[in-house]
């Protein structure tokens, strides 16, 4: 059994034990309550029971209903109560993590902290090209792509226009495309830039083994790649500004202990639909809070896979690119950190990119990231524990905050508590839900998110509902990766739109007819039916106002189940 499995089992066992103890101490669980069973009823009895439930006059109904109450109170409620307290423990962990990161982020913003305060930065000697280029380090720019017909010209052009002496930079296009027509277009584009004097290389492989990690690893095997001191990586839809290298590489040149400089993502299609607007809030929180807090405190965070510059030596010392998970970027970052390397996040350097334009594409992206992160936790827990070049406090931060809370606790607690337990609780009055857990903690999480997005307060309700739906996918992905279930290492490339942002049809490709299961999402529709049932039950039998939110939550699941993303089209 691996260390990740043992550690996870112990942590969840402790959380479950604490939950049971807390539930028993407050009297929410009573294991001494006797369990009774009522007599079996036939069809006539079932009808009588239903009528009796409604008017309370039938003795047969009273007996059956009494048995149900006994089972509900003595068996179902205690089991769910344990789950409630486990979710309470995880919610406290999540809230503490969010408040901590936001406090760091707000403190950094309040004092105007910049990476230059901690790490040396100054323009490179010989930054004037007229004085020669000998003082410039040799840089390799890698652009991995796979059938990227919509965006290949944009990324190649942006990389070829980077400001750097032409004899000190090589642009390497790693084309894993399987469509011969697209491969030919990409190769012709590379030849076009080569004719303009750009040092650009077009590289292909005979197989897609290892996906992106395999392509990047193969790209480093060329002689010109081995001679490079630094490697900048951009996905096919990323377009860096011309001064990107001039603003990032000085950190690496003047700070030999730094392995990675990560820039922030910006988005060309952030206002295209409600879907892209809520996605932007998610990514803004990730960069403004999580990445900035990690950089300012422990000089550690996850490489985002693109829009960053690596020191070639750090990649080699960390063991190079590995394809054992779907988060090869996070994998490399963790291994480099365990070797003693530090990272810098520069939020004022932004690289334009594209958000997934469809709900299915975003779900696939989030599944890949959530599953890969949880799976990496399973694989790397032991390595983090025994690492000699990392302080004990940093190990705790990596295992507890970076892995456990963000990759496992966050999606699990949110999904189970708000999408399952709270709706079911309307049918089980014996279930005790602490107000501080189901109201105060979510309020805290909403506030700490809104603080960093003051311009987006008007879409916060939509963000809350959208994230409620996404927790289902993220929890499923996290458990798939943690337990290595079927599909845990599945890689699906996110579909791009490129310049054609206002048209959802793929340029140069024929629109194919989709089957019903491809046009609707049955998981979301199933959850919507469940939530509508719970809301209706609450409305009819209890009449409390909680049914209002359950109806709204169910509507959110239904709309996303029909692939409605805030435009005028759905079921596409």
UniProtKB/TrEMBL annotation:
Reaction equation(s) it catalyzes: GDP-mannose + (glucomannan)n = GDP + (glucomannan)n+1
Listed name of the protein: glucomannan 4-beta-mannosyltransferase
GO term, biological process aspect, one: cell wall organization
EC assignment: 2.4.1.32
InterPro entries, A to Z: Glyco_trans_2-like, Nucleotide-diphossugar_trans
UniProt record similarity statement: Belongs to the glycosyltransferase 2 family. Plant cellulose synthase-like A subfamily.
UniProt-listed Pfam families: Glyco_trans_2_3
EC class (word): transferase
Membrane topology annotation: Multi-pass membrane protein
Function: Probable mannan synthase which consists of a 4-beta-mannosyltransferase activity on mannan using GDP-mannose. The beta-1,4-mannan product is the backbone for galactomannan synthesis by galactomannan galactosyltransferase. Galactomannan is a noncellulosic polysaccharides of plant cell wall.
Organism: Paspalum notatum var. saurae
Subcellular location: Golgi apparatus membrane
GO molecular-function terms, A-Z: glucomannan 4-beta-mannosyltransferase activity; mannan synthase activity
Transmembrane segments: 75-96, 397-421, 433-451, 520-541, 547-571
One GO CC term on file: Golgi membrane
Occurrences of domain Glycosyltransferase 2-like (ranges): 231-420
Keywords: Cell wall biogenesis/degradation, Glycosyltransferase, Golgi apparatus, Membrane, Transferase, Transmembrane, Transmembrane helix
Major location category of this protein: Golgi
């Amino acid at each position: 059994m691996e260390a990740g499995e043992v550690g996870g089992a112990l942590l969840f066992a402790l959380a479950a034990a604490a939950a049971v103890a807390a539930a028993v101490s407050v009297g929410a669980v009573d294991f001494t309550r006797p369990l009774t069973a009522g007599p079996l009823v036939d069809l006539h009895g079932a009808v009588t029971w239903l009528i009796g439930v409604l008017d309370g006059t039938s003795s047969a109904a009273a007996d059956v209903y009494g048995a149900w109450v006994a089972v509900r109170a003595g068996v179902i409620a205690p089991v769910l109560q344990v789950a409630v307290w486990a979710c309470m423990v995880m919610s406290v962990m999540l809230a503490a993590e969010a408040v901590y990161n936001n406090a760091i982020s707000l403190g950094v913003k309040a004092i105007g902290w910049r990476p230059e305060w901690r790490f040396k930065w100054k323009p490179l000697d010989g930054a004037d090209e007229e004085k020669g280029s000998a003082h410039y380090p040799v840089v390799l720019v890698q652009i991995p792509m796979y059938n990227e017909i919509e965006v290949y010209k944009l990324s190649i052009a942006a990389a070829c226009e980077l400001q750097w002496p032409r004899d000190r930079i090589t642009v390497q296009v790693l084309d894993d495309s399987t469509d011969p027509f697209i491969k030919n277009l990409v190769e012709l584009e590379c030849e076009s830039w080569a004719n303009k004097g750009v040092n650009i290389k077009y590289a292909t492989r005979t197989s897609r083994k290892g996906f992106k990690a395999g392509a990047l690893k193969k790209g480093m095997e060329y002689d010109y790649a081995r001679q490079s001191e630094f490697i900048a990586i951009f996905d096919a839809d990323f377009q860096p500004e011309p001064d990107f290298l001039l603003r990032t590489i000085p950190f690496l040149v003047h700070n030999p202990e730094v392995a990675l400089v990560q820039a922030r993502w910006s988005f060309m299609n952030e206002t295209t639909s409600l879907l892209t607007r809520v996605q932007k809030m998610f990514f803004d929180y990730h960069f403004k809070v999580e990445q900035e807090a990690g950089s300012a405190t422990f000089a550690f965070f996850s490489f985002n896979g693109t829009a960053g510059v690596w020191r070639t030596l750090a990649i080699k010392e960390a063991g190079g690119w590995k394809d054992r998970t779907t988060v090869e970027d996070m994998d490399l970052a963790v291994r480099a950190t365990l070797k003693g390397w530090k990272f810098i996040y520069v939020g004022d350097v932004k690289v334009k990119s594209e958000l997934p334009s469809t709900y299915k594409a975003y779900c696939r992206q989030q599944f890949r990231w959530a599953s890969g992160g949880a799976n990496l936790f399973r694989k790397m827990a032991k390595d983090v524990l025994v690492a000699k070049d990392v302080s004990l406090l940093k190990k705790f931060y990596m295992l507890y905050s970076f892995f456990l809370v963000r990759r496992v606790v966050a999606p699990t607690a949110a999904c189970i508590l708000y999408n399952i337990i709270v709706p079911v609780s309307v049918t089980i009055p014996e279930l005790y839900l602490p107000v501080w857990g189901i109201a105060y903690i979510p309020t805290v999480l909403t506030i700490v998110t809104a603080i960093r997005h003051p311009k987006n307060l008007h879409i916060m309700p939509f963000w809350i509902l959208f994230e409620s739906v996404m927790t289902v996918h993220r929890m499923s992905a996290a458990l798939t990766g943690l337990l290595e279930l079927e599909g845990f290492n599945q890689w699906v490339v996110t579909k791009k739109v490129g310049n054609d942002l206002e048209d959802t049809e793929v340029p140069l490709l024929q629109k194919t007819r989709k089957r019903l299961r491809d046009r609707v999402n049955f998981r979301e529709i199933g959850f919507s039916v469940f939530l509508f049932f719970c809301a209706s039950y609450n409305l009819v039998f209890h009449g409390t106002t909680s049914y209002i939110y359950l109806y709204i939550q169910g509507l959110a699941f239904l709309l996303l189940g029909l692939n409605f993303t805030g435009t005028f089209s759905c079921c596409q």
